[in-house]
Design a protein that fits this description.
5 helices; disordered N terminus
């Protein structure tokens, strides 16, 4: 069936399922998880997953990648208008922290 993840692919937005990366290895492909969420029409879930990935990457020091995921999450959340205003704001705060760290700021 179109839109159904292959057997064994984990489609989740739970942060604990994304880290530690070395423990999970190839079992989790975040991009595929996001793609399947989008194919199933779960755009809010895809945005949540992107936000969680941004948090994880930022914590691992992968700031450029974290910024990319956070920007995509913010864009996705914004599509839900006022219903997702808190998520947009939270994502904007994360982006501000990431940008500060990229500039080498200490807060």
């Amino acid at each position: 069936m179109v839109g159904t993840p292959p057997k064994g692919l984990i489609v989740t937005n739970k942060l604990e399922n994304l880290i530690p990366e070395e423990e999970y290895g190839d079992r989790i492909d975040v991009r595929e998880a996001i793609r399947y969420q989008e194919m199933q029409g779960n755009l809010y879930g895809a945005a949540q997953t992107r936000f969680n990935v941004a948090l994880t990457l930022a914590g691992a020091g992968r700031l450029v990648d974290a910024r990319d995921y956070a920007e995509a999450a913010r864009h996705n959340f914004a599509q839900f208008g006022p219903a997702a205003a808190a998520e947009v704001e939270r994502t904007q705060r994360l982006l501000a922290i990431i940008e500060e760290d990229l500039r080498g700021g200490s807060g």
